[in-house]
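cron nightly-structures :: item 1 of 1
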Amino acid sequence: MPDSVGVASLLPRYWLEDELLDAEVRLQISLPAANFVQPDLSGAQDREYRISEVQLVSEDRGRLAPLTSFAGTPYWAELNLLSNMSALPQPLRVGAWSGLDQAINELAALGPTLYVVTGPITADDDRDTNTKGNGIGFFKAVSDGENVATFLFDVGLPPHTHFCAQLSRLETVESAVSLTLFPGIESRQGRELISLLGCGNR
């Protein structure tokens, strides 16, 4: 209809004046439009909603395994971020979990190859995970190819807890995650490896 004004006519037009409006009204609209400045929202909190970009808060995430190798892929950084990072509670991440990671790194620096299998433990009433609180935790199993040392961490651990206090039996962890870890290794729990990790008196 030639005399009607639609919704599109209410939007600012910088490239063409609206012919349906009087000249005086067009002048009033065009003056402030010339000074229109688009705000810089690149640092706004809702940025990921507006540009479909996932942003991870590093304070809420920690590495499941301290030693990772994804050789042969140009996407190492992305793969490490997506497969090795987990939502570890900060007291656990900066406490016992970090202590065990440091012990593993120090032992690996001495020369032996270490294998780490790690992950979350979900709550299940039929499984005995020896966790407290909400029944959810994380496990870490370390092997030198002959011996295994397993650790079980409750999500509610305070930061001052020593990782050696979280030593667990391999069978307990395997039952909690319904997996057989290191099936080819004869020795199920190696005292020598536990001692090398700094838990000799446990």
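cron nightly-structures :: done
Residues 1-54 form one domain.
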